[in-house]
Structures are given as structure tokens and as C-alpha cells.
Design a protein that fits this description.
about 230 residues, alpha/beta, Isopropylmalate Dehydrogenase, two-stranded parallel ribbon, 9 helices, about 40% helix, membrane, acyltransferase
Length: about 230
Amino acid sequence: MAEHGEVGGAVAAAETAARTVECVEAGGVDLVLKGNISTPILNRAILRLRVRDTVSLVTVFDAAPIADGRPMLLTDPGVTTVCSEQRMVGLVENAVDVARSILGIDRPRVAILSANEKVIESLPSTQMGRNLAERRWPDAVVYGPLSFDLAVSEESVRLKGSSLAGAAREVAGKADVLVCPCLDSANILYKVIMEMVKYGLGTFAGVTVGVMVPYVILSRSDNVETKLHS
């Protein structure tokens, strides 16, 4: 191998993904950084490298218009396509690990997001939020369902959160971790934050939890600063 590493080539995206995994398995790679390749194609290959039941993307961000710019986590805008209750448990556990290790928060406050803070029979994400909140979480305070504004804004809690109590009061307006109900909603929120970053209103970085080596998933339109932070 050359002093500064080895450069290899591939023609198709699937070949690029396969060769990436082969290099990791051979012990020749310390970090995988997604470049100009479709995320689903690379993800399918990378899942061969899983070391946890759930592999997920956790975005660390701060954005001036959200929670007064304090650092927060968002999951999962890029990996998890099927959000069963057990998979959602994995998302929470992975995000809590990142909050503890990167942000230094001993007992992160986790908001399970939905469109409403009340459990609605016709809105499955509210039922998921309730079920996750009822679980025992030794290393975090988890509550759901919560709407986005009630998760991040203490002013919104003051205006419309009079019915919240217990764990809800601990998380509402003070969430450290935002767990979206599906990849679609997480990805939309991710892209909104990305636009804020472009206008100098915040910063963010991504980390994928659950594979053999650090795997950085970035949007192909992310700026250089975001890539460096990741």
C-alpha cells in the first residue's frame, strides 16, 4: 500500500459499494465517507458490517431558529426504512449513546415526534410514541408522542402544554434527541436544517451507529463544513 493509502476505481455504484465493504472487512479502512453515490445502494452493502441489531444515522446539529441554537440530535434521516417498535427502540438506544458520548449528556431527554401530543387511534405514530414512553429507559428520559414545537420550544409548552405532566414535562421544550416516526419525516427535517446551515444559521454533522467502522452519510448537496464536522 502506498504511503498515503491506495486509490481504487469502480465503474458502477453497486461495484463501488461492494468494494468498499470488502476493503473494510480486509482491515484496510478506518472510515467510510459516502460520496457521490446513492445512499440506498451504499447502505445495502454497508449493512453487512453491522455490529448492532439496529444501524441508524444520528445527526448532531445546532440551528439558531430551533431551541435557541443549543446542540441537539436527530434520527433517523438516512438508514432506517422500516420503523417497527423494536427498530424504534434501537433508534432511541443508538441516539442516547451518541448523546452521552459526543454531547456529554448523562441522561438525555428524548422526544418521540408525531403530529400531535395526544394519542390518536387513526395516527399510528402517536401510538408508537406512547408505547416507547411506557418502556423502561435507565439511561434516558423518553416521552412521546410530542409535536415538534412542544419538543423544542419552551414558549410552545407554556402556550399549549398545560396538560403535560411527569416525563412529558421533563422532555417538552427541553429535548436533546428528536426521534422521527419514519425516515421520510426525519429526512425532510434534515433537509430543512441543511438549508439553515447554508445560510449560516447553524452547523451539523452525521454519524452512523452500529457498523464496524465509522460510516459518514452525507447528502450529496451538503457543504464542505458539514463534511468536515462529520
